């Protein structure tokens, strides 16, 4: 897709840095729709079916050497040469993130896979353990698969695990905190230095703690100043600005997000930010601005927490 060549009958995603191997052409097609929605692009796509003439390993080794394939993703139902596949994963993961979604994990799914590719689906429990040992990101569902693509496309790997959260809606940060604990993520106490820095930008009703609930009156400038302060704080590695777009106060749907991204840009995009715009999929101005700025949006607490989970996992690979 780098050179505008689409040798299939499906609609291609915009050109980009993701390369995909799939055993299902229709899954690839659906993924392209999701990539376009999330402002992601595809470099190469290989639909290998039941591996009758080309294997996962052969394509993986090509993607390994291809400079435009900076992220590799795989949809698989069966694998013939498991040892060579895992050996290839282990050699590539330190260089490029690899995201895997396995179809045919249950008895019903295995039966469906048999009729699809004509092969016996690989045992999921064995494969799951092996893929994780290789350091690849194994997704449990298609939504997490797209979230992983978005995360690795837009965000740097953090230097540590400490999370700072700011919000204009207590509910969104509470639900995010629940998910964070499920994934064993670390929402830390604010340092005294950070508390002193953010205090002038908050009204007196606000209790300065993590998560920081700035309440509904917080606008673009508050989001800019608080996000920037957290990004520059030595005790915060990952910043999660949560937002419910207010249906009042004559605020525009993208103004808070503009403050978030301005702070990220002004600090050199050195740390990952996870903008959680709770159920914000229908705000077109917001999405247009995200596309222009090449920045992500996460729409649910699960999506935001999952993004941090896989970034931290990659951090622990020491890559």
Automatic annotation (TrEMBL):
Keywords: ATP-binding, Ligase, Nucleotide-binding. Residues 16-152 form the Succinyl-CoA synthetase-like flavodoxin domain. The keyword Nucleotide-binding applies. It holds the Pfam family Succ_CoA_lig. GO terms for molecular function: ATP binding; ligase activity. The keyword Nucleotide-binding applies. InterPro entries: Acyl-CoA_Synth/Transferase, Succ_CoA_lig_flav_dom, Succinyl-CoA_synth-like. This is Succinyl-CoA synthetase-like flavodoxin domain-containing protein. It comes from marine sediment metagenome.
């Amino acid at each position: 897709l780098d050179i505008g060549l689409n040798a299939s009958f499906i609609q291609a995603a915009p050109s980009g840095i993701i390369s995909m191997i799939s055993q299902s052409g229709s899954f690839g097609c659906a993924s392209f729709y999701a990539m376009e929605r999330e402002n992601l692009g595809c470099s190469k796509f290989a639909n290998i079916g039941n591996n009758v003439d080309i294997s996962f390993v052969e394509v993986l080794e090509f993607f390994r050497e291809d400079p435009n394939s900076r992220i590799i993703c795989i949809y698989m139902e069966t694998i013939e040469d498991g040892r060579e596949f895992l050996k290839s994963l282990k050699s590539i993961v330190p260089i490029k993130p690899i995201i895997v979604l396995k179809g045919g994990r249950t008895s019903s799914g295995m039966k469906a896979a048999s009729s699809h590719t004509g092969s016996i689906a690989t045992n999921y429990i064995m494969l799951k353990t092996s893929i994780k040992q290789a350091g690849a990101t194994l997704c449990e569902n298609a939504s997490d698969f797209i979230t992983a693509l978005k995360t690795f496309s837009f965000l740097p790997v953090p230097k540590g695990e400490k999370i700072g959260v700011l919000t204009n809606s207590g509910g969104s940060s509470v639900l995010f905190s629940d998910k964070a604990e499920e994934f064993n993520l670390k929402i830390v106490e604010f340092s005294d230095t950070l508390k002193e820095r953010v205090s002038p930008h908050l009204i007196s009703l606000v209790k300065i703690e993590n998560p920081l609930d700035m309440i509904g009156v917080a606008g673009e400038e508050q989001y800019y100043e608080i996000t920037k302060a957290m990004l520059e704080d030595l005790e915060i590695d990952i910043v999660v600005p949560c937002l419910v777009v207010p249906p009042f106060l004559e605020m525009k749907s993208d103004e808070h997000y503009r403050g978030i991204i301005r702070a990220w840009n002004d600090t050199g995009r050195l740390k990952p930010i996870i903008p959680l715009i709770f159920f914000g999929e229908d705000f077109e101005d917001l999405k247009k601005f995200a596309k222009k700025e090449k920045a992500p949006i996460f729409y649910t607490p699960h999506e935001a927490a999952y993004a941090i989970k896989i970034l931290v996992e990659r951090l622990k690979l020491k890559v």
